[in-house]
Description:
By secondary structure, chain A is α/β, with parallel strands linked by helices. Chain A is built from 17 helices and 24 strands. Chain B has helices at 14-34, 36-39, 41-66, 74-91, 95-119, 124-143, 153-161, 169-187, 189-199, 201-206, 211-237, 248-258, 270-289, 294-316; strands spanning 148-149, 163-164, 167-168, 239-240. By secondary structure, chain B is mostly helical. Chain B is built from 14 helices and four strands.
Amino acid sequence: MEQKQYAISMSGICKSFGGVPVLDHIDFNLEKGEIHALVGGNGAGKSTLMKIMTGVYNCDDGKIFVDGKETKILTPNDAKKNGIRMIFQELSLIPTLTVAENIFLNHELVKNMHTDKKEMALRAERLLKDLEIDVDVSAKIQDLEVGVCQLVEIAKALSVDASVLIMDEPTASLTEEETELLFKIMGRLKSKGVSIVYISHRLKEILHIADMISVLKDGHIVITDKKEVFDMQSIVRYMIGEKAVNQFVYKERSIAVSKEVLLEVENLTWEGNENSLSFHVNKGEVLGLIGLLGSGRTETMEVLFGLRRQRQAKITLDGMRLKINSPSDAVKYGITLIPEDRRRQGAVLWHSLLSNITLPNLQANSRNGRMQHKKSRVFSEICVDEFNIKTEGIDVPVSSLSGGNQQKVVIAKWFKTNPRILLMDEPTAGVDIGAKGEIVKLVREFAQKQGGVIFVSSELSEVMAICDRILVLKNGKIINEIKREDITEEEVLQNAIQQ
Amino acid sequence: MQSSSKNKKRKFDVTKYMVYIIFVAAVIIFGVWLGGTFFSVANILNIVRQTAMISIMAVGMTFVIATGGIDLTVSGIVPMAGLLAAIILQHTGNLFLAVLAPVLLGAAVGSVNGILITSLSIPPFLVTLGMQGIFKGMAMWVSNTKSMPIYDSMFCTVFGFGSVGPVPILLVWTIVFMLLGYYLLNHCTYGRKVLAIGGNAEAAKYSGIKVNRVIISTYMLSAMLASVAGLLYAGRTKSAKYTYGENDEMTIIAAVVLGGTAMSGGTGSVIGAIVGSLLMGMINNGLVMGGLTVSQQQMVRGFIIIFAVAISNFGNKKKKV
């Protein structure tokens, strides 16, 4: 097959991290002027593949062709030179600068040795008008809605000639109208010959907008075909794969979930959410919260951990009404959170394992405020053994460990505080398959000891494997409750969250 | 997976010991340049006496910088603490009160600093700069820009001229606060919290640490030690004056950073800060003895501050995750 017609063609791409293959001989072709959707579960390799395309990572093996010519993309700058642009999930705009200044950031127009503000404003305005984005170019980013910012971000990417545009969950923070506008923009770009890689978990959107769909699973492309071939069911089936070897199977509990309520939550809500949630967790129960990005999973956890202020909620633990205003209150009550963002929230990465593990356990390792150094060393060593953390020792920084082992450090430090309630927000994100299994096992053991777990994950096979009951969230409210017995296969869950 | 405490020694971290290396280098340079007089007991004791105040304030500053903050207020508190003591001694002659009041003043100023920084999230640099101005001005105002004499001999003995055996009292105070600071930072849960906040305040918060409370306490500690330094300045000169402590904050920050505490927080060394202070004192002393003019001294000191920060940043590169 001639490669000329492709804007980008990747062939035989391999990439592994620490010996674990993430991408295994991937072939991915992007035609000119097509919208190509890339779907797959977390850790399927979507973002790794895109990072290779944009030069953030380099592939171990394989070739990349741009416009039919073999091209080495070793740095983000190489990608830029080849017209490959990525729109980031986390906005890359500078809040204190205006829309126009952001659009021309790092390629300002210069006239007579100074920046030509007038011309930049004019061009920015024209660009936005072309895209039918209605925003004042002299407005500062910090004064704009998140959705508008996302659109500005797209305009910024287009201010330089782009032939390939990669969008990673671009609609996560957009309203329905803004989403419609985005789709219109995408349509127009397409007719101009720009190729778009569209990554999303929202299958409805994908079926609406994409021309081609590729499904990635465990580092392989399972299928690439025209949109017309698929429907929601079939995509889900491809994403999940044949029900073959799956280490995440639900294990019957050796001790049944208690009938006793451990945590009762009523009217939980947060700023910007018109709805509210009420639910309970029994002793020894693992409650799953599922939903798409922005459904309120993370927010619910944050309220329970005292990170978000709110008044209405009535939270009762073991019949005692709790007042949770800060994380230290939550910890005091025995509510702990394994946060989503390990690097920022989970651990002080550049500090040692010892410092990190003892941090929430200072009381147990001190007497009258005086650290017991020997004891805390032993304490940390025990954690390393007990949680099977692969490390050179307890004095090396946590950042030197692999993602899975970093997460085990975070889990270990909290397990050692003997919590009553364990909140877990995407605990297996960026964790290799082996460590995932171990984490799942740890959660099970915790529940067996009559603790309560609230488990948030977008990895549905995991949710299926450990949750006794699952709540489906959308727009900050519970839209469905699924009992363990009613989940026959992962499709049930996939369909539930796509509602 | 087995792990043992006797794991491989990591690479020798030069930045951690940089202050000691520079210290030794400076001793050698001054020794060669100035000869024997530089090494005389009298001169060494002189350096220690001159730097006692800086050293003590550097202990407090270490905690503030270790959380990622900065405290410029100290040079405003120093003169105010001395003047307050002088006024109280003049009017009541009550030694106890003359010591207690300045320390309480320090605690109050520190807590205001801390509350403004944490609750209103004003950058520490601005809060403490403003506070420095307020107290410098206040010191000028209450003293009418005149020096206030202190006649209480007990006060001057305890805070300036006395000695314990052959050891000058100023050195005793330095050692006391150094040990206290070292104990707090290296052997107490408090130190762990301080370092964790500087390392990653978000993660510290997620670990259930009362971040704001700890930050406020570091500013209180720093301001209280500045008050103590103010008493020592007053005791040593038998007087209090609004100019005391002027520009000390810069010397202190340089000393702390030289001592291995990163400006961005998360690491900290009290002993290093003391050695850094001694180094600064030694440089001052050596430059004076070497016959440099005041303007030349100032320039050399400026270079050293840049040098200190350069080293700090060099060591910090690893930190970025």
